[in-house]
Specification:
This protein has 22 helices and two strands. It has 466 residues and is mainly alpha-helical.
Length: 466
Amino acid sequence: MTRTRNEQLACLLGEAGWSRAQAASAFNRAATESRRSGDPCGPLIGRSHVSMWVGGTRPSGSAPAVLALALSRRLKRVVTVSELGFGDPGGPAPIGPPADALAVLADLGRADLHPDRRNLLAGIVYSTAILAVPTGERPGAAPGPVPQAAERLSNHLRVVQGDVATVRELTLAFSAVDQRRGGGHGRTALVQYLRTDVRDLLHGRYTHERVRRDMESAAAELSYLSGWMAFDSGENPLAQRYFVLALQLADQAGDHPLGGHILRAMAHQALDMGHFDNALALAEASVADRRYTEATPRERALLGVVHARALAAAGRTRSAVKALLRSENDLAAAEDGVVEPHRTFFFGEASLAHETARTLEVLGDRRGAIREFGRSVRTRGPAFRRTHAVTLGHLGAAQMADGQVEEACLTWSGLLDAMEEEGIQSGRAEQAVAQVRRLLSPLRHRGIPSVTAVSERANRHLSKLH
């Protein structure tokens, strides 16, 4: 079979100034990073692979997405899979600035719910290229034009404020399940609702401009929640897709605090994945201008404490401490009983203490971190068992690092109790259990009863997952 030379790829490699060997090296660096992030990637390549691709051979699996990521970094712009000249991969649209949020929503939801979702989503990798933007610019995309009336009349659905209220109520219900039992519970139903009902509402005929904006804001928050649940389940590339979509919808709605909330989540994800420079840029964007000034005190406290952690990770100690103090003051100014405009914030003393502890860990204040993790555990309500379990994992690890072996084992027993009693399905909580096994492994043969008991429980728990 005669293959047609891939001129699009050849031009991109020329623009990057890469030889075939240099392109292969850049590909391998991006693939290795994706493996560390837990994303599925194929084997590493050599220059002969690049030559074959230019010659017209289409790479398999996630290779096109990894190559697009490598070129995006080199060219300092988002390069999509379609630009590589490999033809339609048959999966979801490549990550990057969505030209039409509704089309992206339909495509992403279809792939996420497909019976063969593993293969359809294999081409998505977590992309730092999307996050590497100048301060003050929005990662992902410019908001793009608001869909015109002719586009929205396709289903002739009349949308009123009651429809917006329904979306918000269901968002609250899904969020409550996530907080109690983890991102593995209910996300399929959420995505199905987002892809069908909510997409139809976004296509509908609005009674007023205010209704349109409110519906886009509600859809943005639901898309954010789907991203957060995917993040909690360890599906980082998919989570990033939903966050970018949510950010575009929030921008179209003119909902600045919600945009800050989404940027804050993206910063949190980047911190957990070790992309500290990107995390700081995202966190600074989340507290910039109207995203912060139009937010409620409780919202500002959440944005600020993640900003503090990002500052600490970047080595800016004094700024991090200052941001922590500001978050404490913001939360103190929040009034009890006030209904927050965005129901997925759920921010209180326990959350502030948890993020403060994470920041103090980065700053090298282990005792301070143990104190704040302990405060978080004491003040966390029963509706937030998933996050409670994650906090217990961090507290035990900090106690172990401080030489408090018995205390750590007691803490981790509480973690395992929470996992078993609530049936928590959370990738982050499971990672905490895996860390228990790893940290206790060197001590298992020393005959310490508490170490033996907790190690065996952790092994039994993890064995049930495979």
